[in-house]
Amino acid sequence: xxxxxxxxxxxxxxxxxxxxxxxxxxxxxxxxxxxxxxxxxxxxxxxxxxxxxxxxxxxxxxxxxxxxxxxxxxxxxxxxxxxxxxxxxxxxxxxxxxxxxxxxxxxxxxxxxxxxxxxxxxxxxxxxxxxxxxxxxxxxxxx
Length: 143
What we know:
alpha+beta; two-stranded antiparallel sheet; 18% helix; disordered N terminus; 1 helix; 143 residues
């Protein structure tokens, strides 16, 4: 009986190791986590109206190539940041998508939600093309 349990245990551990390794290699992605001190400028109608500061947690997932073509990296930022102009605390969620083009230049698309504990909400989306250093604002909502 002990021998059967031992072999079954080894079998399941071996299967789990093979499956997790296969999943890691099948999508070719690297990932990481971290925390940094930082700030975020809040723009409304082209003017900086606030600066939110504090500790920012981030998670990134990167793929080098997909079908031989440079691919992308996705970063997710989450934090509770303090306003520099009021006593409001904001819960922020931001997703950055970095795409490496075939010309080996980066293109950034960023979507964000900043939700304050006093009811203020900032949402938006912007793009940055590093080949031309052009900054595009898709939309910004300031409530």
